[in-house]
Each structure stands twice: as structure tokens, then as C-alpha cells.
Amino acid sequence: MGYKLYLEKFNEILKELSSEYIIYAPILIKGGANFSDTDRVRYGQISKVEDIVFDEKSHFSFKEVLLPQSETLLYFTEDEVREAAPKSKGSIVFLRSCDLHAVKRMDDIYLRNGFEDYYYKRLRENTKFILMGCERTFENCFCVDMGTNKSNNYDGYIRVENHEVYFDSKCETFDILLEKKEADTIEVEPKFISENNVTVNIPEELSLDVMKSTMWEEYNQRCIACGRCNFVCPTCTCFTMQDIFYQDNKNVGERRRVWSSCQVDGFTDMAGGHSFRQNKGQRMRFKVLHKVYDYKKKWGYHMCVGCGRCDDICPEYISFSNCINKLQSACDEVK
């Protein structure tokens, strides 16, 4: 159901929701970027609509709400193991269509991949998503070609125009509060973009033979294995485990799940000193083919959602979209 109400009234709704939910959205962090006096847009807690950045793409994705960068799973002593308590509140996340599609990929990995991850599930079940439409395409986005520029799998959709909020609700919680504020009932149609400045072409005949191509050798020199592309990506979900021992008692501590990356040194280290993909070109090959080849073999759609954040963040100006567009030549090369 669609609603229209003044911005101040919607802020009152957010205040009521904050008693049960932590509300996250893209916000401007002054001086939070890489260089002096430059700003960063990333996810943080909000209390009012005016805090939300609607006209820029967030440099980091929403995923740390569902998969924290460092998450304590359990505490241990000499003779006891205790599960870490969940967050006392649920979460509400404002996000764009590409990121909402990324939630589906995260659900695939943590809920439908032969098991259910307990820690992910308890956060996911208490999270609601409010879709932010894109009025225009952003730099390096290629969501249209990836089929993620549109989505209707949201709990709410928001558009703000002239101090008025237009809201499409698919959630009883939102309906109750909107009706309580006597919001006008109108038809609200989400706005989506239909064209990007960047386009990608994934070959229909793409196969693992492309692994033999020489195209991957370029990245041996260019990539510095920093892992930034993985950390900003909304569908990269790899982690490592860390046991932390407290200084006062070496037999007491906690086990944490911490983000990791297929691009960084040591990711594939195994017992006995074995390690795979030490070559940076091989790591790039693994990432690319995972995003646009083998994931689709299993799930029927690509892992990459075309948000372009990997291109935005790379300090060596490596473009993932350009890499995808080289695959056709690579296919021809190995035939």
C-alpha cells in the first residue's frame, strides 16, 4: 500500500521504530575517506530521513549489518563454552536495488547452501529492508546488464520529494505506524534506472577453458592484494576464524568470525604449509569466474550485482567491468 506524508511525520515513525530496531542507511562521514579533508559515504545509524544520503552511492555496502566485520560467536573458559548473545534490537536497512539483490545472494550462501548459518540467520530474521530508488546511474555501475536494477522484494520503498515522503509498504509494522500518523493513501510506484554508462558483456559460451587465457597475467603486476574489492562488495562473504585469548587469563577468551578475502596473501594457506593461488593473476581469475560463471551454474543467476564498488575502491584502478568485457576475447584465444 502506498502512502504520502510530511517528512516530520515520517521522522516520528523512525523515532518509534528505534525502540525496537537499529536503523541503518548511507550517511556522510566528514573526513572519513582516504585523503585529507575528503568525505566518505558508508552505512551508519540514523535517526531522521535528513541523515540519509540519497544522491550518492555508498562506498561500502550494507552487508556489515548482516555479516559484521568482526563478530564474536562464543566465549570460552577452561571448562565452559557460552554462546554470544544476539543484538537486543532488530535492524532496518535503507538500501538500493542492487544491494537488495545482494541480500538474496547472501541468503543463498548462508541459508540455502546445504546448511543454515545460525549466527547469520538470527540477524537476518530480525532485519527489514527499505528500498531507495535510483534517480540516475552512478559512476561504474552496471546493474542493468546484471539484471539487478529493479526489485520488488522489499518491506518498504521510500522516495523523498519537496519535504514529503512517498512510501510503498509491504510490511504490517510500517502500515500500522503510517496509518497511525494519518498518512494519505496513494499509489506509489518505485523508480528504477534503465540505463548505465558502463555496460558489460558476459559470453554465453563462457567455460572453464578461459582459465588458460593469458589475460590473467596482467593482474600479476597490477594487483597489490589489498582485498579492498572484496571488502566493499555486497556479495563477498568469505571469513576466517580467530581465537582471542585474554591477557589476564590465557585459558579464557572468545572466538570471532572476521572478514577475509580471496585476494589477500595467506587466504588459501593450509596445514602442512600448502597454499593455493599465490599468483595474483590466479586470484583475480578465481574471483571473476566465481562472480560470473560458477555461481550461475549452481543458482541460475550471477553472483555479481553490478554495483561497481570494486571499481570505485581499487587503488590500482583495476576495473572489474573491464575484466568481464575481456572474457570474450579470452574465450576466442583459447579455442
UniProtKB/TrEMBL annotation:
<dbReference type="Pfam" id="PF17179">
    <property type="entry name" value="Fer4_22"/>
</dbReference>
<dbReference type="GO" id="GO:0051536">
    <property type="term" value="F:iron-sulfur cluster binding"/>
</dbReference>
<keyword id="KW-0408">Iron</keyword>
<dbReference type="InterPro" id="IPR017900">
    <property type="entry name" value="4Fe4S_Fe_S_CS"/>
</dbReference>
<keyword id="KW-0411">Iron-sulfur</keyword>
<feature type="domain" description="4Fe-4S ferredoxin-type">
    <location>
        <begin position="212"/>
        <end position="244"/>
    </location>
</feature>
<dbReference type="GO" id="GO:0046872">
    <property type="term" value="F:metal ion binding"/>
</dbReference>
<feature type="domain" description="4Fe-4S ferredoxin-type">
    <location>
        <begin position="295"/>
        <end position="323"/>
    </location>
</feature>
<keyword id="KW-0479">Metal-binding</keyword>
<protein>
    <submittedName>
        <fullName>Sulfite reductase subunit A</fullName>
    </submittedName>
</protein>
<dbReference type="InterPro" id="IPR014259">
    <property type="entry name" value="Sulphite_reductase_A"/>
</dbReference>
<dbReference type="InterPro" id="IPR009051">
    <property type="entry name" value="Helical_ferredxn"/>
</dbReference>
<dbReference type="InterPro" id="IPR017896">
    <property type="entry name" value="4Fe4S_Fe-S-bd"/>
</dbReference>
